Structures are given as structure tokens and as C-alpha cells.
Amino acid sequence: MVYVGVDVGATYIRIGLIREDGSVINKVKIRQPVSGDENTVANVIIKSIKELTNGIHIDGIGIGSIGPLDLSKGIVPWAPNAPIKRFKLVEPIIREFKVTVILGNDAMAAVWGEYLFGIGKGINNLVYITFSTGIGAGVIVDGHLLVGKDGNAHEVGHIVIDINSRIQCGCGGYGHWEGLGSGANIPRVINEFIKNKSYKSRIYEKLVRGEHVSTEEIFQAYYDGDELARDFIDNYLMRVHAVGLANVMNAYDPELIVLGGSMALNNVDLFRIGIEKYLREYVAVKPARIDFTKFGDDIGIIGAAALAIKVPESLRMYVRHYEEFLS
């Protein structure tokens, strides 16, 4: 049996043909459309699925998407980090292919993929966290995938970790983990970090001249020994992530937390050491083991397909609901 996994990110959409055992047959990566109406994203996905399958029979389509979601409608009502803020997913795709379509948050899909096929296999209390453009999570408690009333029971990126921060998250809130530590927001945060400070630093000099410094540039400067990048990442950013992870451990009491997303996977040792340095200052329960996904960028398409390969009990009601789109 062959399934399609669709990973809808803020910047890229990844689509894969996935076997029932979770192995990848073929895949494609495309950029998010920068403009259009609420059907544009789905139309881009439909076109890419047709090209990828090239007549191959598919048994189901799983979609893991950035959120927040409205699962009952099968849509993303407002995506803070995506070019098109509101878009349909389920209805246009199920009408086109007439197979089971199941939608979940991208990190929700990833945790299900780890639970079925990855390092979380057999672990009933498991969290997956992605560190990328945003920060998101998927959560399994006692073998049950958490969903919530609209599909947002796991939006840990919007945990408030600094009530005094005036840095605004993309969602509009203040002091959120994502607002202070995600790839999209780090360039703004470091500008606040340097206020009333001075460094012998190439990054610092660029910032005081009003030049943009990207997240990737800051991490590269860290490895080059840049004074500001070292101070910001070691003493601020890693503490932010430790606080966020401690909140996750305190709330869900997982045995294992799997980290993914480009920011974590490109800096594994830095994240491992930096988080460990601060975590015990904030965690109230027995700390979970922390590891990194072995699927790399493929975790998104594998996890999305996993939702269709073995539909979680907590999402089955939506499968029946989406079939009404065909009537």
C-alpha cells in the first residue's frame, strides 16, 4: 500500500510517497506560494501530488500543516508565518483524489510518525518539538494523541515564558516561546538583546548600523567565535529553549522528547549541551530523555503519511466528517 504525506510548512511544502512501513519511495519540495486565495495552497499540492504519483494508486493522504488549525473545517484559519494566511486543505484535496484524507498539525503528525516508525516507537508518553521558522509540538500521553477542540492542544510555541517581554510573537501575543526563540524571530530578539550593551563583534557592528542579520548568520558567527553570537546563544537563547522544554515536561510528563526542525538538527551538539546547562533550574518532574529525530527533514512527510496509515483514535471523527465533502 502507498500513501501520500504532505508537510505544509511556512516556507516550503514537502510531499512524499510513503510505503506502509514508513519508508520513502519518492519526494518533492516546493516553495509556499507567496500570494493567492484560500484555494491556492491546496491547488499547488494537488498539482504536485499528481506529478509525483504519475498514475500510481494511493491508499490515503495525510497532511501535517502549520497552524493554528480548524480541524472541523479542514483549514488553516490564520498562519502567522506563512505568506497566505488563510487557506483550505482538506476539501479541495479529498474532492480531487477521493481517498481518505486526514489533517493534523505538522508537529502532531511528526510525533505520530516517531511513535509508529521512529525512535519513539513503543513509547506511550512522547513529545516531538520542531525548532524552525516557528516552534511547534506534537504530544502523545498514555498512547493517546492529543488533539483539542480545534486541533491545537499542543501549541507549545505560544507558552508564555517571559511576562515582561514586549517582543511580539507572530500570533500577536507577547513573551511567547516562539516569539523569543524561533528562527523567524531571532533577528528581532537579538536587536533587543544588545540594547545598553557593547561587543567586539562583526554581528554587533552590523546591527548597530541597522543592517539585517539572519538567524543562520548568527549561528555561523557563533561557530566562528563571535562574541555577541556566543553570549546571545549560550546565555539567552539556550535558556529560552530550556524554559520552554521544562514547561513541556512539567505539563505532559513525557518519557522522551524528540527534537527536529532545521534549527535544532543543524546544531545538535549546541542544543544538547546548551539545554542541559539550564534545564534543571526549571523542571519540576523527572526530566525526559531528549533526542533528535533520525528522519531529518523527512519526518514531516513520514509523519503526515503516518496519520493516514494508522489513523489516531482522536482524529477518526474528522475522517468521517471530511467524507461529507464528497456528497
TrEMBL record:
GO molecular function terms listed in the Swiss-Prot or TrEMBL record: N-acylmannosamine kinase activity; UDP-N-acetylglucosamine 2-epimerase activity
Pfam families per the UniProt record, alphabetical: ROK
Residue stretches in coiled coil: none
The organism's place on the tree of life at top rank: Archaea
PANTHER family membership: BIFUNCTIONAL UDP-N-ACETYLGLUCOSAMINE 2-EPIMERASE_N-ACETYLMANNOSAMINE KINASE (PTHR18964:SF149), ROK (REPRESSOR, ORF, KINASE) FAMILY (PTHR18964)
The protein's name: Hexokinase
